[in-house]
Design a protein that fits this description.
Layout: H1 2-29, H2 31-68, H3 72-124, H4 133-144, H5 149-178, H6 180-210, H7 212-224, H8 228-236, H9 240-292, H10 298-339, E1 359-367, E2 377-385, E3 389-394, H11 400-407, E4 415-420, E5 423-424, H12 430-434, E6 437-440, H13 451-456, H14 466-475, H15 479-483, H16 506-519, E7 524-528, H17 536-549, E8 554-558, E9 570-575, E10 578-583, H18 585-591, H19 594-611
Parallel strand pairs: 3-8, 3-9, 6-7, 7-8
Antiparallel strand pairs: 1-2, 1-4, 4-5, 9-10
Helix pairs in contact: 1-2, 1-5, 1-10, 2-3, 2-5, 2-10, 4-10, 5-6, 5-10, 6-9, 6-10, 7-9, 9-10, 14-16
Length: 621
C-alpha cells in the first residue's frame, strides 16, 4: 500500500501539471472566454437542485392550501415561487446561445494560436526529425490536435467537473440527512461504470497512437484524390479501383481494433448499468414507502426523488468529466510532444566572419541519414575558394545534393567538420549563415501565390520592390512568359484560390525557382539541377545569365548536362559518396577517368539524337 501511495501522488502531480498547460494557453488567449464558460457550466448545473427545492416548496404550499384553503398569503408565495422557478429556466436557456458563441470564438482563437506555434516550431526543427518514422508519427498526431478541440474539451470538462461537484454537494447534503446508507449505496453503484469507461478510453487512445502509421497511410491515400497532380495519374493509369480497395482494406484494418474495443466495452458496461438502475429504483421505492407511512410529505418526496436521480447522475458526471479530461489530455500531450521534441536547429550563434578571401573547407566529412546503414558521404575533403565556379557531377545517389544540404546546415555532418574562414559553421547564427547563400533546389516548391510573390519570397526584404523582381525574372528568362500572362506579375500561379490563375509548364516553373534564387543577395550560389526541365535554348540563356550574375561570387552547381559546364573553374566528380576526381574539363578529359567516360557516353548519345532530329534535353547520366 505504501508503494502504491508513493506512485499515486507523483502521477497526480504530473496530471495536474499537464492539464494546467492547455488551460493556461486558453487563459492567455482570452480570460473572458474562461469566465463565460465557467458561468455557463455553473448555471446549467446548479439550476437542478434549485428547481428541485422550489418544486418541493410549491407542492408543500399546495398541500397546506388543500388543508386550510388557498389564502392570499399562500397565493403570493406561489406566485413568488413560480417567478423564482422561471429565473433558472430562463438563465439556462439564455446561456445555450452564449455558450455556442463562446465555444466558436474560443475554437477559432485556439486553432490560430496552436497553428502559429506549430509553424514556429517547424521552422526551428531539424530536417532529421522528419526522417524518423516515430518522429513523423508525433508530428502527424500533433497536426490532428491543431484545431484546438481537445484543449477546449479539457477546459470545459474541468469546469463541468467543478460545477457538478457544487451541484453534488447541494444534493448530497439533504440526501445524507434523509438516509446516509441509501446515499452511499447509490454512489457506490455508479463506480463500476466510471472505472470501465476510464479503462476503455485509455485503450482506445493507445490503439490510435500505436496505429498512427496505419492512420497516416489511410490519410495519404485519401489525399491522393484531392491533389491535382496525383488525380491526373489516377485517371491516366486507371488506378481508382486499386487505390479505393487499398484505402478500404487499411481503413477496415484500423477500424477493426476500435470496433472490438467498443464491443467489449458495451458488454462489460451492461451489468454496471443494470446495477445502477436497480439501485435507483430501490431508492425511489424506499422514498415512496416513507410517504405512505407519513415520515415525509409529498413535497419532500418530490425533492428526494429528484435528488436520487440527480445524485447518481452528478456522480457519474463528475467521474465522466474527470475521465474525459484525462482522455483529452492524453491527446493534447501529442501537441506538447511535438513542441518539446529535441530535434532543434541551433539558431543562435556568432555573426558570420567574412575576410578578404573567403573560403569554405570540408575536413574529413562523413555523413549518413538517420537510420541509414550506409554513409552517403565518405571522408569528403574539399576547399571552395571565393569567386570559384564549381560543378558537382556524378551518377544519381552519389551524394551531390547532400553536400548542398550540409552547406546550408539542413543536416549536420556525422563526422568531421565544415569550416568558413577556419571557423566551424555550426558556431554561426543559422539565419546569418543562410543569408550568404542564393539557392535553387532540384525539388523546388510550386507556390500557389502571385508571380510577384513567388519570385519575391526569394528575398522578403525586397518583395515589394517590383524593379528587383523584374530583374530577377529577366535573368531567369521569364520575360516572354510574363508578357503572355493575363495580369502580368499579379497573375496567380494556380486556380486553387482564383479562377483567373494560370497553370505553367514544368520548365516555366523551374524558371520561377531560378528567379527566386536570383532575388537573393547571397554571395554563394547553390544550384541543384536548375536546368533539368529546360530545353536547350532556355538552358543556354540560363548559363549566359548565370555568368553575368556570378561575377565576384562563388557558385556551386549540380548538373547532369556535362556539355554545359566545360567552362567552369573546377569539376568535382563524385561516386558512391566520395570525390574521385577534381579538376577543370580539359584536365579531366586528359585523365581519361570516370568523368571522361561520362562525358563520352553523353556526347555519343547527343550526337545520335541530333542525327535522328530529336531533342536531347531529357537525356542525363
Amino acid at each position: 500500500m505504501k508503494k502504491n501511495k508513493c506512485d499515486f501522488i507523483p502521477k497526480i502531480k504530473i496530471y495536474i501539471k499537464e492539464i494546467y498547460k492547455p488551460i493556461e494557453m486558453i487563459w492567455q488567449e482570452d480570460k473572458m472566454i474562461v469566465l463565460l464558460l465557467f458561468v455557463n457550466s455553473l448555471v446549467r448545473k446548479i439550476y437542478i437542485p434549485i428547481i428541485a427545492f422550489i418544486t418541493k416548496r410549491i407542492i408543500e404550499i399546495i398541500e397546506i392550501a388543500n388543508s386550510i384553503g388557498f389564502s392570499l398569503e399562500l397565493q403570493n408565495k406561489i406566485i413568488i415561487l413560480f417567478v423564482l422557478l422561471f429565473i433558472p429556466f430562463a438563465l439556462n436557456r439564455l446561456w445555450w446561445p452564449v455558450n455556442t458563441y463562446t465555444q466558436a470564438i474560443a475554437t477559432t482563437k485556439l486553432t490560430n494560436s496552436i497553428k502559429k506555434k506549430i509553424m514556429v516550431k517547424i521552422c526551428d526543427t531539424s530536417l532529421c526529425f522528419f526522417d524518423e518514422e516515430e518522429c513523423y508519427n508525433i508530428y502527424e498526431n500533433c497536426i490532428k490536435e491543431s484545431n484546438g478541440k481537445r484543449i477546449l474539451e479539457i477546459l470545459q470538462n474541468l469546469l463541468n467537473f467543478i460545477a457538478t461537484i457544487i451541484m453534488f454537494i447541494l444534493l448530497a447534503f439533504p440526501m445524507f440527512i434523509f438516509n446516509p446508507i441509501l446515499s452511499i449505496l447509490l454512489i457506490l453503484s455508479a463506480i463500476p461504470g466510471v472505472i470501465i469507461e476510464k479503462i476503455f478510453a485509455k485503450k482506445i487512445f493507445l490503439h490510435e497512437t500505436n496505429n498512427t502509421l496505419l492512420s497516416r497511410m489511410i490519410k495519404y491515400i485519401f489525399e491522393l484524390f484531392s491533389n491535382k497532380q496525383s488525380v491526373k495519374e489516377i485517371k491516366v493509369f486507371r488506378i481508382y479501383d486499386y487505390l479505393e480497395k487499398k484505402h478500404s482494406e487499411k481503413y477496415k484494418e484500423y477500424n477493426q481494433g476500435i470496433k472490438k474495443l467498443m464491443q467489449k466495452s458495451l458488454i462489460i458496461s451492461l451489468p454496471a448499468f443494470f446495477i445502477l438502475q436497480i439501485m435507483t429504483l430501490i431508492g425511489y421505492y424506499f422514498t415512496v414507502t416513507k410517504v405512505t407511512n407519513g415520515s415525509i410529505n409529498i413535497g419532500e418526496m418530490s425533492f428526494i426523488i429528484t435528488a436520487i436521480g440527480s445524485l447518481t447522475v452528478s456522480f457519474i458526471t463528475i467521474s465522466d468529466a474527470f475521465n474525459r479530461t484525462f482522455t483529452s489530455n492524453l491527446y493534447v500531450q501529442n501537441l506538447y510532444k511535438f513542441y518539446n521534441h529535441g530535434y532543434i536547429e541551433e539558431m543562435q550563434g556568432e555573426d558570420v566572419v567574412h575576410m578578404e578571401n573567403n573560403e569554405i573547407s570540408f575536413k574529413n566529412v562523413w555523413f549518413k541519414y538517420p537510420n541509414a546503414k550506409e554513409y552517403t558521404l565518405k571522408n569528403i575533403c574539399l576547399t571552395i575558394k571565393e569567386s570559384e565556379f564549381i560543378a558537382l557531377v556524378g551518377l544519381n545517389g552519389a551524394g551531390k545534393t547532400t553536400i548542398i544540404k550540409l552547406l546550408l546546415r539542413l543536416y549536420k555532418p556525422t563526422e568531421g567538420e565544415i569550416l568558413y574562414n577556419g571557423i566551424d559553421i555550426s558556431s554561426f547564427s543559422i539565419d546569418k549563415w543562410r543569408e550568404i547563400f542564393s539557392v535553387c533546389f532540384q525539388d523546388f516548391f510550386d507556390y500557389s501565390l502571385s508571380l510577384k510573390e513567388a519570385i519575391g519570397i526569394g528575398n522578403v526584404n525586397k518583395i515589394d520592390l517590383l524593379a528587383n523582381i523584374k530583374q530577377a525574372a529577366e535573368f531567369a528568362g521569364l520575360a516572354n512568359v510574363i508578357d503572355g500572362l493575363p495580369m502580368g506579375y499579379d497573375t496567380p500561379l494556380s486556380r486553387e484560390f482564383d479562377n483567373e490563375g494560370v497553370e505553367l509548364s514544368k520548365g516555366q516553373k523551374s524558371k520561377i525557382a531560378i528567379a527566386r534564387a536570383f532575388m537573393s543577395d547571397g554571395q554563394i550560389l547553390l544550384f541543384d539541377e536548375p536546368t533539368a526541365s529546360l530545353d536547350a535554348r532556355a538552358e543556354n540563356d540560363y548559363f549566359e545569365s548565370l555568368k553575368k550574375l556570378i561575377r565576384n561570387k562563388t557558385c556551386l552547381i549540380i548538373t547532369h548536362r556535362l556539355t554545359s559546364i566545360k567552362s567552369v573553374d573546377r569539376i568535382l566528380v563524385l561516386s558512391n559518396g566520395e570525390i574521385v576526381e577534381d579538376g577543370n574539363h580539359e584536365a579531366l578529359m586528359r585523365n581519361k577517368g570516370f568523368y571522361f567516360q561520362l562525358y563520352e557516353t553523353q556526347s555519343e548519345k547527343y550526337m545520335k539524337l541530333a542525327k535522328e532530329g530529336k531533342n536531347e534535353k531529357n537525356y542525363t547520366i
